[in-house]
Amino acid sequence: MAQQLLSSSPLSCPSISNRRHICLFNNGLLLVVSLLLLLGAGSPLFLFPYISFSSSSSMPLDWRDYSLTQAAKFVAKDRTVIVCTVSYPFLPFLNNWLISVSRQKHQDKVLVIAEDYATLYLINKKWPGHAVLILPALDSHIEHRFGSRGFFKFTSRRPQHLLQLLELGYNVMYNDVDMVWLQDPFQYLKGRHDAYFTDDRTTIKPLNHSHDLPLPDRKGMTYICSCMIFLRPKHGAKLLMKKWIEELQAGSKAYEGNDQPAFNWALNKTYHQVDLYLLSQAAFPTGGLYFKNKKWVEETKGKHVIVHNNYIIGYYNKMKRFQDFGLWLVDDHAFESPLGKLE
Ligand SMILES: *[C@@H]1O[C@H](CO)[C@@H](O)[C@H](O)[C@H]1NC(C)=O
Ligand SMILES: *[C@@H]1O[C@H](CO)[C@@H](O)[C@H](O)[C@H]1NC(C)=O
Asked: Where does the Nucleotide-diphospho-sugar transferase domain lie (predicted)?
């Protein structure tokens, strides 16, 4: 009996008929351990391989059955997960971003929310457990340009995924994959605030600018970026995500193609209930500044932490700009990515 249990691989457990069944989840493992103890096979040496086995045993038989709960549990370190959302055409950008994340040794916490099955299967084949798909899936063949209707569809789901992770009790960092890390961002997430974010305005601020939500401009708008957000699993952060979802639903026509205005309205409306923290401009510059103002980049040298390749239209233009600035890492450094070289 014990032999049989030990030799049964997690991918061929007895309940193969039920594809949703996950072998050896916590209770299952407990059961197995108690069984082994009952059978007098409970020596630490005997148990050890089983226990290390259990980390891979939370893997489903088919990745389409892998839930966000399982995936978050698998990748989280220090109750923290780093998430991004990716559709198939953006895999090269994902890999580029991942290399930069790996250089800061945070890749283990990365969970890719795959927008289509091709992405889900490819990532999990190369890097098991690090991609999850939350229904509905998008058609892999549709090109999702930044700003297109398809792109909007998936950005509008962002606060729902983030809220779900907060409800599960994780700290969550969200990144767009057209970003590159130059330093470890976690050391900049000072204090115990609910939500951390960056300003997308290109106006240069003093280095000691306030960490409060910026004042609205003459149009009554703020331009906080929905591209890089860090949230702690506290009431305020959840409230902010709920308001963001509400704003997206209320204004879906007006916001078509962009979830950022809704995020800004959510920040505005929850301002008195949420502990907000605006990250430093020099550390987290918008692409409108980093790629367009050489003088500023020179003056703030060594202070940049995450660079965002926005304020540019078009997939290949974006890629070219990374190349021009020495930030396109996938050609020469693909081996540094947990995904390796793609195709
Ligand atoms: C930033 O520094 C300047 C000059 O040292 C000072 O006058 C200003 O009050 C500071 N601003 C903040 C927000 O601390
Ligand atoms: C919220 O938006 C309104 C309208 O633009 C503005 O008057 C108000 O100052 C904003 N509040 C905050 C906290 O930014």
From this structure: 106-322
Q: For residue 84, give both structure tokens.
A: 């991004």
Give how far Cα 326 sits from Cα of 182, 202, 317, 323, 331, Å: 12, 22, 14, 5, 11
Of ligand 2's listed atoms, the one at least distance from the Cα of 213 is 14
Task: State the pLDDT at residue 108.
Answer: 98
- Positive or negative torsion for Cα 97, 98, 99, 105: positive
The answer for residues whose C-beta is within 8 angstroms of residue 65's C-beta and 6 or more apart is 19, 20, 22
Residue spans of the domains in the chain: they are: 2-60, 65-336
Half-sphere exposure of 242 (CA within 13 A, CB side): 11
Q: How far is the CA of 215 from the centre of ligand 2 (A)?
A: 7
Secondary structure of 212-226 as H, E, C letters: CCCCCCCCCCCCEEE
User: 65-336: what CATH class?
Assistant: alpha beta
**Measured in angstroms, how far is the CA atom of residue 177 from the centroid of ligand 1?**
34
- Looking at residue 139, its pLDDT comes to 66
How confident is the model over 28-42, as pLDDT tens digits? Answer: 444 444 444 444 444
* Model confidence pLDDT, tens digit, residues 192-212: 999 999 999 999 999 999 999
The distance of Cα 342 from the centroid of its chain, to the nearest Å, equals: 20
Give pTM, 2 decimals: 0.81
Q: How far apart are the C-alpha atoms of 113 and 108, rounded to whole Å?
A: 15
Which of these, 42, 178, 162, 53, lies nearest to 111 by C-alpha position?
A: 162
Atom of ligand 1 nearest to the CA of 206: 1
Cα→Cα distances 262→71, 96, 125, 223, 273, Å: 28, 28, 36, 11, 17
